[in-house]
Amino acid sequence: MKKTKKLVALLLCMTMILSLAACGKGEKDVNKDITPTVAPTEAAGDDKGQEKTVEPDVPAGRRDASTPRSAANANNPLVISTLTLDGKFTPFFGTSEPDRKIYDSTQITLIYNNESAEPVAGVNEPTAAWDFKMTTNEDQSKSTYKFWIKNGIQFSDGHVLNADDVLFNLYVFLDPKYDGSSTLYSMNIEGLKAYQAQILDESSAEAKLAEFTEAANKKVDAALAGNGEAVVTDKLWELVKESVTADNNDLVKGQYTPEKLGLVGPEDFLTSAPQSIILYYTSSCIGRDLITYKNGAYVIDEATGLTVDKMSTYTEEDYINASVKCIKETINAAEFDEAFGYTTVDDAKAFFAGEEKSVYLEANKGTVKSISGISKGKEVCSDGVERETVTVVLNGVDPKAIWNFTFEVAPMHYYAGQARHDAANGVDNFGVDFSSAEFMFGLKEFNGLPMGAGPYKMTDAKNSENPTSDQFYDNGICYFVANDYFLLGAPKVKYLRYKTINAGSELDSVLTGDVHYSDPKASATTINKITSDSAYSHLNYVLVDNLGYGYIGINAELIPDLNVRRALMSAMDTALTLGAYPGGLAQVIHRPVSQVSWAYPEGCTAMYPFDETGAASKEYFLKAGYKETADGKLLAPDGSKPSFKFTIPSSADDHPAGQVFLKTQEVLEKLGVEVIIDVDQNLLSKINEGVISVWAAAWVATIDPDMFQVYYSDPSKNQATSPKASGLYYLFENGTAEEKEILVRLNELIEQGRSTLNVDERKPIYSEALDKAMEIAVELPTYQRKNMFVYNKSIIDPTSLTPADKTTPYRSPIYALWDISLLDK
User: Fold this and answer.
1) Beta pairing, strands 674-679 & 643-648
2) What residues of the chain score a pLDDT lower than 50?
């Protein structure tokens, strides 16, 4: 459900910093076949049993468990800082960058990228693939990706990784019930639609899916007309109650009083009757006085079923139920959506479409047992060793597809259970219960307990072999111990810790020895301290270009007028972000893609140049229907004082966008437009709730500049969360003709950019697409900065870090975590 526009207007809308995957850079010429240059060795088979035994595909002279560690490496932990963790530590459902760092320590990927952002695999890489090759047929109607899987590679519990584990991960990501952040489903894999719709004729799959939507729409429309099924009507009112409850929670949390709603209430409302606030709010939305305060006394409409004499004894739930009762008696669910700004009718239609689909899939389960474009096999490689293969065939050409295969290969036996693992055959059984909510729920039960073939495995403060999730992540620390089975060698440091610290304390945490490695904001002050202050003489730093970029986001569902969004952007001086990165540690950017990317348009300029006078903003506000008073101030179309809330996760003085927000506040104040700047450290978890109207954020970019996940606005094709957070799904269906025209063209360009592998052809496509993204005014790019990594050189051996010439936006100083070494004192 979308958050009510009316309540959000009262709550005045909010902001935040966010780390999500977005646009990126630097692909290899993927028209060419890609083959690793390392020399492979012979390898062994899988843990289901092979008679022939060969050596595992590991580097010659690999460190193993018998290799002695130095005293420091054997006894002292390496402690790395991390920001607040959400606790989703599996590659299936992890969403935040801090969480990714946790589960990445336990995983290897199918393929990887090198320091130049080229896809790689091989014996000397932390990949499950020994080799891979990508080809397209002459008419580019098919693309084929083949991966040769290493022999004898073990997960941290000793089980051997094989092709079935790779297939298991693919089938989880591509299952109809999968609701994680992976977008592998966006690839046009041959046979995927037939599999997801369980219909043999793939050309009929989309039509079958449309049938579910049509049937659901008829059910809900009939219920709204008063002649539908009781179960549908009940669902509509269930959703209405959820919406009312959400409003109530926000009102109570925000300590709202009747006065804030433009109504009359007692001065001591927050101590005498705060739980009744939802009645006031409901009254203002349905135009019916459910509760009033006159002449020092309350009056409650008897239709609520409540009485004044018992007001103090009623709970929030009582008031919510009373509100819902009166809403049902006054308006229907569609009218509720109109009055309160929710989408309960659409949500109900989506729910019943899902039910129709689930019923159909359950009845037809097994009609299509596999995805025809995904297969496994065995081949004798050029070195004479037989290896398993996994092949994926795509319809058409998708230049971003190669990066979809950098997914972590999580162990099937662990996440799906040994029984499913043993039954999997890679032909019609892949260890995944098809379209099963219960199966997906079971996967989520492992969110707190990651396991894989990576350099480290989870433990606890007492180094237990089988920690609970609460023991693994305890008191802000994630505990790891070396995985001596790791394919590139037993890690040099036996114990690893990730310790959560507060944003802004990264440098101090290394200075005091709380952690040994962190990533403070790059600043001239920090550099001067490390290079000149004796108190910091035990520290050292590395600077690396940041692949991501900063931006200010606007939720178009909460600020639905295009010209209002443009007015706000015209009052934002993005150059002020550079104050947080003096000395050339950042640059202003003008398009929503990293400047590191080849897709960044050379010589582009600001689409909404900052106008300190406010004239540009005023012009846009007037186009939006705002009225100018005699004193030159502006009033909203409804005659009210315009007001917006901008929210950041730390104080304006500490945040790169803080000064931008303060300046915007100053500029718009001249026009009579209020900007309220709020600070909320928990905004990361709120971004998708739809209550944030303007926020300061920073994208973590991916290698390819594909814009699908962030900007493709058709919800029937994209299920990612970013377009929801920015309101693009809403605009696609409810925007003005101008907005829909922009979005349709942007979607077309995104599809065109994905239809060719040729970078020279893609550049002009992305140049126009980035312009269209700016025209819709939901994201204002701000700055591109340097990254700084600081470490304690008296603890960490500097020579064990990634060499300077290999440290790039694509590989950090601790990329080879398994090779980091501590100094003996």
Assistant:
1) parallel
2) 1-5, 8-50
b/e per residue 242-270 (b: at least 16 CB within 10 A) = ebbbbbbebbbeeebbbebbebebbeebe
The reported pLDDT for the residue numbered 812 is 92
CA 641 to chain centre: 35
Amino acid at 676: I
* Measured CA distances, 371 to 168, 424, 435, 620 (Å): 12, 15, 14, 51
How much is the CA Rg of the chain, to the nearest whole Å? 28
Q: In this predicted structure, what is the pLDDT of residue 336? A: 93
Which contiguous run of DSSP H or E holds residue 508?
helix 506-511
Given a contact cutoff of 8 angstroms between Cβ atoms, the answer to whether 36 and 717 are in contact is no
* Residue-wise DSSP of 73-85: HHHSEEEEEE---
The pair of three-digit structure tokens given for residue 627, joined into one six-digit string: 């009225």
Contacts of 496 (CB under 8 A, 6+ apart): 77, 78, 80, 105, 456, 479, 480, 481, 482, 817
What's the pLDDT score for residue 260? Answer: 84
Determine phi and psi for 25, rounding to 5 degrees. Answer: -145, 170
Question: What tens digit of pLDDT does each residue of 602-656 get?
Answer: 999 999 999 999 999 999 999 999 999 999 999 999 999 999 999 888 888 889 9
State the helix-helix crossing angle for 205-224 and 230-253, rounded to 10 degrees. Answer: 80
d(CA 720, CA 740): 19
| SS3 category, 671 | coil
Cα of 495 vs its chain's centroid, Å: 29
Task: Return d(Cα 24, Cα 289) in angstroms, integer.
Answer: 54
Element (H, E) at 376: strand 374-380
Over the stretch 240-297, which tens digit does the pLDDT of each residue have? 999 999 999 989 988 899 988 888 999 899 999 999 999 999 998 898 899 999 999 9
Report the greatest alpha carbon distance in the chain: 94
Residue 606 to residue 574: CA distance in whole angstroms: 10
